[in-house]
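User: Earlier you gave me the apo prediction for this protein. Now I'd like the version with zinc ion bound, so I can compare the two side by side. Same sequence as before, with the ligand SMILES added.
Assistant: Got it. Here's the input I'm using:
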Amino acid sequence: MKTNKIIILLSVMAFLLYTISCGSKHVSIRKSANPEVAYFCPMDTMINEANPGQCTVCGMNLIKNPNYSGEEINTVVVTSTGDTLHE
Ligand SMILES: [Zn+2]
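And here is the structure of the complex with zinc ion:
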């Protein structure tokens, strides 16, 4: 009888410890990333992609970066006659 009580007590304590440790796990969710990043995973800070898709770590859909600068590389060519060409 006494052993059962000890087992129950231990399992309750283990459960409490587990709950406390899970509860304190700090999950930081990213809402934006550096301006050069087009898409990122909100859960995994190392996942930054140029194209939409799924995170290779957690499988979540990547989020479009609201800070993305979207820098288009504008190449301007000046010909020998002084004309400018945009590529
Ligand atoms: Zn992820």
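For your comparison, keep in mind: Strands lie at 39-40, 48-49, 63-64, 76-78, 84-86.
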